[in-house]
Amino acid sequence: MVRFEEVGVLPEPGDNVAIASRRLEAGIEVQLDGTTVTLPHTVLEGHRFVVAPTSTGDALTSWNTAFARASRDLVPGDYVCTPTSLAAVTARGVEGLPEVPSATNEPLDPYELDESALNFGAQVTSVEQPGTFLGYPREQGPAGTRNHVVLMATSSRSSGFVTELARRFDGAAAGDGVVPVAHTEGGEDEVPNNLHFLLATLAGFTLNPNVGAVLIVDTEGDVVSGEAIKNFMAENGYPSIKVPHAYFTRKAGFEHDLTIAGALIEPWLPVVDAQQRQEVPLADLKIALQCGGSDAFSGISANPLAGQVSAELIRHGGTAVLAETDELIGAEPYVLNNVRDLATARRFLEIIKSFKERVGWHGHTAEGNPSGGNVYRGLYNIVLKSIGAARKLPREVRLDHVIEYGEPLPGSGYIFMDSPGNDLESVAGQIGSGCNLIFFTTGNGSITNFPFVPTLKFVTTSARYERLHAEMDVDAGKYLTGTPMADLTAETFDLTVRVASGEKSAGERAGHSQVSIWRNWKQVGPVEGISISTDGRMSRKLTDLPAEDRDAPLDGLPLHGLISDSRTPTELLRVDDRLVPEAVGLILPTSLCSGQIALRIAAQAELEKWAGDAVTRMVALPHTEGCGSSGGASEETFARTMLGYLLHPNTRMALLLEHGCEKTHNDYFRSRLVEAGADPSRFGWASIQADGGLDAVGEKVKDWFSSFQLAAPVDERGNLGALTVGLEARGPFSDATAEALALIGREIVGSGGSVVLSSRGALLAHDGFRTAAFGSAEPVGPTVAHGQRFVAPGWHVMRMPGTDWMETATGFGATGVQQILAHVAGGTLSAQRFVPVVEFSNDPETVATYGDDLDAVATGDAAEQARIGLDTIAAVASRRLVPKAVASGNVGFQITRGLLGTSM
Fold first, then answer.
1. What string of H, E and C letters represents the secondary structure of 202-228?
2. Which residue in 70, 135, 385, 833 has its CB near the most CB atoms, within 10 A?
3. The predicted structure's pLDDT at residue 550
4. Helix axes 382-390, 303-315, angle to 10 degrees
């Protein structure tokens, strides 16, 4: 028998549901209000149980807000579980659970504002003597908490460039260091729908107080260019950039441009390094409030603590910025409990309405926000998640302003910024608005960090803090074990000032970071059969939608194309039961938050040869998906793409690395592999959170790869018929080149191999290519969905929802493509991390300007160009030639969200 205080937490007096503070097995007896209650079912830590009799249909409450309705009469001790939460726990193999749910989710009815009930209170009282911290004064605004040289890509086309450029300045004396801002946006041929958000965020990055100097890098032809950012700033009244800065456009070879850009940066380094911290007012602190990997205790310990520290900062004249719009849906009454004026309240609700509409265009509601990790850790639905998230706004603190994503901060106080629940995308907007420090609250132990703004991570429970102490900064769980909130607030406020003054945060000590800006969305308005109706239901099932909209799988059978009898010899590798050009050791992050860690681990595994001679190289594939993005069609495309790499013919050993709190965790992919007919025991499995943090998970990955005694691959002679090749053309190309590419495809297919084309690519749009490849200029349709593995070799067309090059290359790889041959004109392409990208050109101007980046120059008639292309493919497949883009470090990887994907 245990006392309730030992095993349960009541969010607020008057609630009829409590939170289990540890796992409670079925049959345990709990002393509750003088009576003994026996729990009939297992209740996991963070899940809820009834503490007061509740009749069928009555509200179940936390923080005196209804989050669910009783499905039957409930008595104290009954486990509260909704269909979603019960399914999530059952999927994890938990025993002792009820057979049927006991509750249903509270409907997300539109919130009706009662203007007469609004409280237009005063902001929290100011302190008599405002405090200070040691920061870097800036001519254009508040002081910085850090002093970085920032290399900023305007679009994804330059992300590989700024990453490599920053790497070459590792360890340079330059204030707090040279860091890249590499992201996935703006890389398509057309104007992106998120253009305003993208320009606002990038403009804000250049003016962020933590930036001591900035190089703005674009590529010729970018829609989102340095000039576009400059014009946006002028048109919207932004101040001029006062720190050392320059705009740089890539116009020549990769190495050439690295040298020129590096020469621009060199003079800035001593200037930035010479700057000294000075005493500046705490009013210059602008805190970005974020949460990720939330659990049931986020609203009890970490979020209230972050809110109280923010309130104290506001008393000193500082600013706190709340974000994640969809994670406040259902908590509108709480947020508007204390607001500056009626206009601010109305603006907040307009933002909520706009977000719901945008998500509805893609066939989703905010109910899709909670991740699998959220639900497993006790956040059954968006209402519970939202109320807990809103606790970062203390009841006594007034909401002062409401702004758009990346909009400059309008003043001090407490501000709400529109953004998705996707942590990294939301953080980027806050940094673009001017925040110079991040409070990140987490239940599971999210390890995310930003390149030039330090992150303080508050973890909700002491047990999780102990497990991940090297990655966390604040143990908010001490509140659950008796430490007064006032004491924790004072302690954390002191830490905040110290970190603002230069003390490194846990994330900075770990040395990793990521940037993801609010991603582009395809749908721009209501679409029949896709959009959510006003009652929150879809007008028809997803399976009823057009196949292209939902990116449904196709039959995977090849097209009837032309072939040839010619053969090009190639030196391949015999690996197990197949001939392949290479044997890859793959570390595949299951979501965006484990991506950068996977990269670091793969680099170490490559250097130290963890897999011995069993693999030819180690690869990690960081991306932006798996958490903070919508489900449905987009999730299906994502999962299919991931499976394509796990089951790729070049993959010899593969380990999945989960963050631990994402939608698509390790268990998710175990079930997906079983559905695909694969044996999950063939793969390695590791978890950053569950395995104890970065060092511990790195050792686990090392042990897994090192445990095998696989023989080294054996050289064996073959031909191009053993390969699957993607063919692509970017920029203008001649009729002869079109025919040459067709001839290349004809030999590969005629030899028994496969060729994959993009449905949106220039090759299929060319009459001459179609005639030379298929014997007719008639249009051809896709044979496989994006990233779908085909069932028989031959000519294939992959459905492509957009024109982004890296998303195209990533889709190619998931189909089984082992090499991409691309004809380029007017510029070159980034390589893909997994699939070698071979670039050649027949265009004289391109050869003259970008010759150093080309793997081959195609000269002569169609037959001669084809022979050059085939010989180059063979050289790369035989490992005699490393593609230039790969060798230079100009690499990337990005998964598409398709037509229906959106950030949540």
1. HHHHHHCCCEEEEEEEEECCCCCCHHH
2. 385
3. 83
4. 30
Residue keyed to tokens 């080294």: 712
What is this structure's pTM?
0.95
The count of other CB atoms within 10 Å of the CB of residue 539 is 12
CB 769 within 8 A of CB 763: yes
Structure-derived torsion over alpha carbons of residues 716, 721, 725, 728, reported in degrees to the nearest 10:
130
Give the CA count within 13 Å in the CB-facing half-sphere of 686: 29
Pull the structure tokens for residue 278: 């000075």
Compute how many other C-beta atoms are within 10 angstroms of the C-beta atom of residue 224: 26
Amino acid of residue 357: E
Angle at 275 between CA 274 and CA 279, to 5 degrees: 145
Report the greatest alpha carbon distance in the chain: 93
Model confidence over 777-827: pLDDT tens digits? 999 999 999 999 999 999 999 999 999 999 999 999 999 999 999 999 999
Secondary structure (3-state) at 857: strand
From 87, 112, 113, 111, select the one nearest 100 (Cα to Cα).
Answer: 87
CA 439 to chain centre: 19
**DSSP three-state, residue 31:** strand
Does 143 score more than 80 pLDDT?
A: yes
CATH class of 2-105: mainly beta
Phi-psi region of 144 (alpha: psi -120 to 50; beta: other; left: phi over 0): beta
Q: CA-CA distance, 119 to 125, in Å (whole number)?
A: 17
Sort 126 into a burial class: Cβ within 10 Å, 0-12 / 13-18 / 19+: exposed
How many Å separate Cα 142 from the centre of its chain?
Answer: 29
What is the C-alpha separation between 814 and 832, in angstroms, rounded? 12
Give CA–CA dist 853/866, Å, rounded.
Answer: 20
Per-position DSSP letters for 641-706, written without gaps between them:
HHHHHHT-TTEEEEEEEE-SSSSS-HHHHHHHHHHTT--GGGSEEEETTTTTSHHHHHHHHHHHHH
Say if residues 91 and 126 touch (Cβ distance below 8 Å): no
Cβ atoms 620, 601 nearer than 8 A: yes
> Residues 544-597: pLDDT tens digits?
677 787 889 999 999 999 999 999 999 999 999 899 999 999 999 999 999 999
Which structure tokens are listed for 879? 């490992």
Joined tokens for residue 626: 């798996």
Q: Across-strand partners of 841?
A: 857
Superfamily name with CATH number, domain 143-280: Response regulator (3.40.50.2300)
Q: Which residues pair with 459 in a beta bridge?
A: 442, 475
Output the 3-class SS for 723-782: CEEEEEEECCCCHHHHHHHHHHHHHHHHCCCEEEEECCCCCCCCHHHHHHHHCCCCCCCC
Cα three-residue angle 487-489-493, rounded to 5 degrees: 125
DSSP 301: I
Q: What would the mean pLDDT of 148-177 be, rounded to a whole number? A: 97
8 A C-beta contact, residue 504 and residue 468: no
Please say whether the beta carbons of 449 and 592 come within 8 A.
no
Would you say residue 539 has pLDDT above 60?
A: no
Which residues is 74 bridged to in the sheet?
54
pLDDT band (50, 70, 90) for residue 543: low
Same CATH topology for 143-280 and 717-892: the answer is yes
Q: Is 681 exposed, middle or buried (0-12, 13-18, 19+ CB in 10 A)?
A: exposed
Parallel/antiparallel/unpaired status of strands 455-459 and 437-442: parallel
144 vs 435: CA distance, rounded Å: 9
CB-CB neighbours of 642 under 10 Å:
26
Rounded mean pLDDT of the chain?
A: 95
Closest to 291 (Cα-Cα) out of 371, 181, 220, 184? 371
Q: How is domain 717-892 classified at the architecture level of CATH?
A: 3-Layer(aba) Sandwich (3.40)
DSSP H helical ranges for 362-412 = 372-376, 382-390
| Residue type, position 81, single letter | C
